[in-house]
Queue: 2 jobs
Job 1
Amino acid sequence: MTDERVPGDQGSNEPADLDLRTFSDDAALVACLRASYARFPAPDAAQVARCTTAVLAATMHAPSRRFGGAARPRWWWGAAAAAVLVVSVLRPWQPEVAVQQADGAFVGASAAPVGTTTESGDAIRFDLTLPNSAQKVALVGDFNGWDEHATPMVRRRNDGAWSAKVPLLPGRHVYAFVVDGRTWLVDPLAPQVPDEGYGPANAVVVEGPR
Amino acid sequence: MSPRARTTLWLALQLLTTTIASSLAAPSASALPAPLAAASRAASADTVYFRDPQGQLDAARFDTLTANALRVLLDDAAAKGLPTGPLINRALEGAARRVGGQRILSVVRAHAAALAEAKAALGEGSTVAELDAGATALRAGIDAKSLTVVRGTRQNGTAVTALVVLTDVVKRGVPTSTAREAVATIARNPRSDDALLGLQSTVAKNSQRGPGMALDALNRYVRGTVTGTQSPSTPETSDRKPVRPPDS
């Protein structure tokens, strides 16, 4: 401790009483502050321990600093998760909804129909599987004068499978499918007749030796 | 002028043009082949070649002008010895697709011309189904020489399946020469229609996997189906293995 006065010292022992405007440089201000605090009595060990404990306790219980603030786990999180689990597991099974969802996914991936032609006795059986739900499907071709009312296809199951059996003479036959009276479809994997100026290509089927 | 009136006028002009062309073609029968020339000389201007006792051409499905123009076209085709059934089918298909009369007449006229070319390429003894398949192939861009080659592989049987498969394979991206060689190689074997349809199915499935896959599938199929053959698109190479020169 010293009684030596530094510039700006107005005879006060408190730092708040210093008149900062009288200091021309920072070094003199630091020296003055250091001298004023050095005159305080040293804190005892109990006071230091109490302050330390208080600071640590406040830090430990501060929500914003402990674990993510607003993201801190709460008890109702578990309740909400349990409720979602119960709803999703115990939801009643709806097959038609599942089929519609599957159809929608299939249409999104590939909207191409799948068809086959097979010999069935003295007739040819035409099968067509549509990825979407059609109301009516007709088979048209040179064997029925391209009349969409002449050979309606029969829905075999509820999975978009349609079929028709047509007695055909030996030779080459051109055909196509008409869905709901307005959309013409062809089997993408069957032999196709190139576009002859009318639009989508038609598929053809050829009988055996003639 | 309204679109309907314009269409009617166009159809009337087409009918008039076709009628005049038919009447002008009749006196120049000396330029036709002998059977047609003889038939032309024997027939008067009022001769009707196209008859439809079974009512194949359902005229009620066309407007009057289109139906009359179709009758003239079919009569002209019958006079040339072409089958009229495929032409009627094209017309009915157009009516079912609800396309206009102009386009129906255009398609039928183009198919008649293709039938005539197919008849020249395939020979007089070809069946109606072969001519129809050949005409479709020609309209798909396949040359007449390919039709002749494919027809030559089936001296005793029908070449319908071979022509249909050739058309389909070319349509799926295989070059015409490669497709012709592949189809001809398989078609030379007796009772090979199933193998040809297998080729079509293989190419069709693989063509959906990306460009070039159809050609690759065709080569593999031909190698696996016909033993002792090379792939149609494989260049000829020597089987001799490189020999290391002797050490001096």
Note: Residues 1-12, 103-110 of chain A have pLDDT under 50 and may be disordered.
Job 2
Amino acid sequence: MNIRISLQIAKTHLLTKKRQTLIAMLGVTFGIAMFIVMISFIKGVNKFLEDSALDATPHVRMYKEITSNHPSLIDEVNPGAFNVIHHQLPKNELANIKNGLQIVANIEKDKAVLGVSPQIGSQVFFNKGPIPVAGQIAGVDILKENKLYNIKRRIKSGSMEALLSNSNGILMGSILARNLNVKVGDKLTITTPTGNLKLVKVVGIYGFGIQTVDGVRCYANMSMVQEILQKDKSYVTDIHIKMKDSQAAIAFAKVLKNQYKYETQDWAEANSAFMTGDKIRNAMVVIVSITLLVVAGFGIYNIMNMNVINKMKDIAILKATGFGGKDIVAVFLIQSIIIGVLGACLGLLIGFSLSYLLSITPFNAGDFLDVKTFPVIFNIKYYLMGLAFGVVTTILAGYLPARKAAKIDPVAILRG
Amino acid sequence: MKVLAANHINKYFYEPEKFQVLKNISFEARKGEFLSLVGKSGCGKSTLLYILSTMDTDYEGTLEMNGERLTGKTQDQLAAFRNEHLGFVFQFHFLLPEFTVLQNVMLPALKLGKYSAKEVEERAYQKLKLVDMHSHALKQSSKLSGGQQQRVAIARALINDPTIIMGDEPTGNLDKKNSEVVFNIFKQIAHENHQTIITVTHDPDFAKGSDRIIEMSDGQIISS
């Protein structure tokens, strides 16, 4: 078999039927371009959602579970018997993690851990004017919290450090601040569930770009929150942990749970809704891409089939003058491959351009997400995948007509 | 010296019903011989030619060329054999329309790969000169007249210096003048280059001018 001569014949065939070649190519081009745009965009959306969800949630959160599902006194006294208790209530127990600060110090020693932040969380009402607005307050060591969530970068006005020098200061979420109509320097009253009041001063306003955070949460110093809750200096309700590798968190959460006997929750569990969305979108990319490529493949199959039928006489001559079946397969397969490679390359180029245009298109998601343009990922991997898909599809689509060409009986055609 | 031997060839057509086209045909051809196969339509002469051409492998009996037994070889082996040892000229000229005259002549030689592309081009010009078509070498082959195309087809058949050249009514589609040109080229090839020529023809003048006439009737050779 002589590839160079097959290549020459293939080239001549393609160039004499320029329009047909172009149409076959555009089929592949369109398929690949759409594949690139879709995968770049959907992967971009996935990554963006994952990042913003992960940004605002700890990799592992340790907390004490308050539940009424505890063994009753009768069960303890009279185990194994048929004890019936109606309307069991939760025990009057503290929601804190005992020795919380000690645990924090221990976890911090682990090399895989990026940062640990102890917190005191509580529901509060913010009073500015007659109507109380519900929200949450988190008493934190703001420097530790900053290490986890990069609070400093998210400050919209005021400053994070002001919290350190102002024992009654709070950092307020941007949406909450807008709802309450407060600015940096304004004062307002907070009410705890147990009815304590405290006058606090807004020293900074931050925004994560996530409604469920920016619309409800305020940061304050640990000591101030302990004070309004009337708890001691070691009172801690939550421990937030960030790992260096987010994937390691899932196993680490289980280790912590076993070690300290407190409930833990990893980020995947906390964001299971996002994760499911990810999977659905990924599946969509695969389904639509395959559909597009199959359609492009059928286009090539049709055109190559027609090509073979039109070229029956030529094939018979080539066979008569000594070209073997493999040569004929090569002639037609090379045509498909050229169409596939050129079409795919053009498709990658167009796909890249469209993705780029999409990535600079303004997009307003409102307060729900902090995003100004459509999120698009540019990853060489997707482009290589697109090229591979395009070439494989065209080879498959071109092989059947090529084999048909090779099987043509020259006698039947030459005899007329 | 014999270059072709067909022994006891039988051939059947199965459509629409079983029918014996060739009945126990045996004959030989010598080197440099100009042979004509004649007979009425449907006598099986074309069928015989396509068996001799090695393209039709569905027959009984054996076929030998250049001392090589060809019966039972694979399609690809036969294609390689045709490439090197056989040349074809058909009734309807059959050039590749997208290629130039020169490329058409060169293709079988490039396939053979015995000479470099440059040498092949030189040889192609020689063969085109032989049929007086060298001035049209760079024309698109579809732009030529029928007689011109047939001459190019002869040049193509000669490019690899085959032992045998086969023609299926090579003058069937040509006028008197062009037929004569083709006939003279064939005669020259046979007698000066000592290549064997086997043609199927309906043209009595063409047949008369050849060295030997094999007449067929009803699937059998009746005189040779």
Note: The first helix of chain B runs from residue 45 to 52.
